[in-house]
Amino acid sequence: MNFDSIIPIADAELAARVQRRLDSLTKPPGSLGRLESLALRIALIQQSETPSIGRKAMLIFCADHGVVAEGVSPYPAEVTAQMAANFHAGGAAINVLCRHYGIEPVIVDVGVGRPTKNFAREPAMTRKQAERAIAIGMEHAGRADLLGAGEMGIGNSTSAAAIFAAISGLDPGETTGRGTGLDEAGVAHKAEVIRRALKLHRPDPCDGIGVLAAVGGFEIAAIAGLILAAARLRRVVVLDGFISCSAALIARTIAPAALDYVIYSHRSAERGHRRMLEFLNVEPLLDLDMRLGEGTGAALGINLAEAAVKLLCEMATFQSARVSNRD
Question: Which of 176, 246, 250, 316, by CA, is between 20 and 30 Å from 125?
Answer without folding.
Answer: 176
